[in-house]
Amino acid sequence: MPRFMVFVRATPSSEGAAEPTPEILSAVGTYNASLLAAGVLLAGEGLVPSSRDSVRITPGASPKVEEGPFPTNELVSGWWILKVKDVQEAVEWARKCPEGCGVLEVRRIAEMEDFGEALGEEGRKREAEMREQMEKLARGE
């Protein structure tokens, strides 16, 4: 079953100094519980404003490192990873997100088969081993 990432786009409010209201935190908590109860939630987190502990690194011969804050229209303020049957189901869940979260973007997470033959047998083996190690870490092993 495919996995989808639902990005929450940042807003001036999410990037501001004010904390989220208890009402929105409660609504998002209820939403998260519904995702979990349905068995579709794999992970999800909110992000602190880009003015706190945020760095952008632009690759190149001499990578450029910039500290936040960054323009709101370039930011994500949170995310969920859902495991659902298709993009339509991911969109259905995203549409249930409480008012006040901001603009959402739904994108399918690439799987090994999405890379065709370019990954090669060795690349597939290495990727499978890496995923197994990540799952062990997630379980605390």
TrEMBL record:
InterPro entries: Dimeric_a/b-barrel, YCII
Record region (Disordered): 120-141
SUPFAM superfamilies: Dimeric alpha+beta barrel
Positions with biased composition (Basic and acidic residues): 121-141
Origin superkingdom: Eukaryota
Boundaries of every YCII-related domain copy: 5-112
Gene3D superfamilies listed in its UniProt record: Dimeric alpha+beta barrel
UniProt cross-references to Pfam families, sorted A to Z: YCII (PF03795)
Name assigned to this protein: DGPF-domain-containing protein
Organism this protein belongs to: Hyaloscypha bicolor E
